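Pipeline run #58 for the internal structure catalog. This entry was flagged by the ingest filter as a single-chain record with no existing model, so it goes straight to prediction. Upstream metadata was stripped on purpose; only the residue string is passed forward. Reviewer on rotation: M.T. Logging verbosity set to normal.
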Amino acid sequence: MPILTFIIVAVIKIALAVFVLLTAVAYTVWLERKVVGHMQNRWGPTRVGPFGLLQPAADGVKFLFKEDLTPPHVYRPLFIAAPMIAVIFAITSIAVIPFGNALHVPFVNYPIPMQITDLNIGLLVVLGITSLGVYGVALSGWSSNSKYSLLGGLRASAQMISYEIALGLSLVGVLILAGTFSLRGIVEAQHGHFAGFIPNWFIFRGGQFVAFFIYLMAAYAETNRIPFDLPEAETELVAGYHTEYSAMKFAMFFMAEYANMITVACIASLLFLGGWSGPIFGPQLLQDILPLVWFALRIFVFLFIYIWVRGTLPRFRYDQLMAFGWKFLLPLAIANLVITALIVALRA
């Protein structure tokens, strides 16, 4: 591909990916308010636009024009940088996530991969970038110079480090079966069926259903969602690490949270649920778009489960949270890794 064409295509893909991600973040908030509202016998957003569909736009305008208060006692440089750190790392991880097969465009003589960049260590890049997001939470708590915010930041640091270990170990079994760190390569290793009709997804192979359960639980904790949202437990910490924030800086933390939810859903779909695999038929344009549709449906289901759990389960106590991570998930992840390695070794 000529270098100029490559640059133009890359810029267009980056702009599209950021636009779609931020739009998905906004409408995941709308979906959560709607679904939880119906679960609690309420309507949810209905006033702004049909079915409240313009509510995310109204919220965005409200945050932009609200007065941005900065308390006088904060450490200003880190106080301002913390929400930026959180949202930048949450959005950056989308750069290496593939969304489907190549797209064939008439005026371009090359198939365009549905991915900003394809790295052979894509999974490591995603894990590395998302793990840095804890700095935004921890620094916001420390720089606020408030006891409530500091306790929320400390809780976040302990929680995210604890559950990152189990989350990382839950993915090693998949890497052993796939034999690659490339996200596209992991999806390609799940093509086809076994036993005649069962999809060749890793959730059905080598006992990786257990790994999927561990990943799911650790992902809830990593993204600070109920029942693991202890860093922002309003019952005892006011609002946790973002107590002192207002206006757009406050919104950035929630943008980061929902962007991380979408990233977690993408990784779960790619590693355990076959990525974009599904029935493909029709003309070339439809064959290019259908994998994107199947991938989006998997992400939607995963996000709906996120919201369903929020509307169903109560919050853990902090000692229960840490005990669940260290005494249950971590030993289970190690056992699953050892059993997967033995199965692969015996089959070799």
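catalog note: The beta strands are 102-103, 112-113, 193-194, 198-199.
catalog note: The chain is about 65% helix and 0% strand.
status: ready for reviewer M.T.
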